[in-house]
Specification:
The protein is α/β, with parallel strands linked by helices. The two termini are 28 Å apart. The structure holds manganese (II) ion (MN). The site of manganese (II) ion (MN) has 8 residues, from loops.
Length: 263
């Protein structure tokens, strides 16, 4: 039994990095389908792999196979590379089998609203912030993700639901909050300037769907979040409305493994 949406957006899978959770995404994709699937960047962490910080596990290969299968069954799959899979940007305008690669895209929803689909790393360059504090924030963020994985590993063993330390701390760290707020404001402003009704992006690993006002004109801001920590996706329902999904269920593979160990 699976859910069917008009469109589905995922980003920041970071496949190939140590923080990637491919089996969770595979579990999600098995149960959530759409007429159009958008891969909104940082699907592969080519940066981590190129710098020798990567890790390619069996579940990474399984997810890749699943994406290939998904692309053959989904009427339209549009891949918009991000800064971690930037080499794929040279494929913009071309096809990888059934997957269409684009730099960015305008999606028209069932209600006629037009959404700008972009990874969003370009907004970051417009943030006016001290680069030193940014890099410190970035490093402690990744450190936090490590810690988060460790905590959830033990929570998983004790059958406790997934808990996001990063979300917990992120909302309290002032510098991170300021960065994310600036990112969102720039994205919203830029979308309004282009005369579009909304933006669907990724990059900052903070999932959201909200209405905003730009000089009396409503703009919808949506961020897919990620598959490292928040395990989230944006979907368009058949009436054209957007919704944020969180997928915190334990993956089947993990359950089967736990059962096998217990038996
Ligand atoms: Mn990114």
């Amino acid at each position: 039994m699976s859910n069917r949406y008009r469109a589905l957006w995922i980003s920041d899978v970071h496949l190939g990095s140590r923080d990637s959770e491919p089996q969770r995404l595979a579990d999600f994709l098995a149960q959530n389908r759409a007429d159009t699937v958008y891969l909104v960047g940082d699907i592969f962490d080519m940066k981590a792999l190129a710098q020798g910080r990567g890790s390619w596990c069996q579940s990474s290969s399984l997810l890749l196979e699943m994406l290939a299968e998904l692309s053959s069954k989904t009427p339209e799959v549009i891949y918009i590379p991000g800064n971690h899979d930037a080499p794929m940007r040279s494929w913009a305008g071309k096809r990888l089998g059934n997957i269409r690669v684009e730099r960015d895209w305008v999606h028209t929803a069932a209600d006629g609203r037009r959404y700008w689909v972009t990874h969003g790393d370009q907004f970051e360059h417009q943030i006016d912030i001290n680069p030193i504090s940014y890099h410190i924030g970035d490093r402690s963020y990744y450190l936090m993700l490590r810690l988060n994985r460790w905590i959830n590993y033990w929570r998983g063993r004790f059958d406790k639901p997934w808990w996001s330390l990063a979300n917990h701390v992120k909302s309290r760290v002032q510098a991170a909050r300021r960065l994310m707020r600036s990112f969102e404001e720039i994205a919203i402003r830029e979308t309004g300037r282009r005369g579009l009704d909304g933006v669907i992006c990724g990059h900052i690993h903070r999932a959201a769907v909200r209405h905003s006002d730009v000089s009396g004109r409503g703009v919808i801001y949506a961020n897919c979040g990620d598959w490292v920590d928040s395990m989230s996706a944006v979907v368009e329902k058949h009436d054209g409305s957007l919704e944020l999904l969180h997928w915190h269920r334990a993956p089947k593979i993990a359950r089967i493994m736990t059962e096998a160990v217990a038996a």
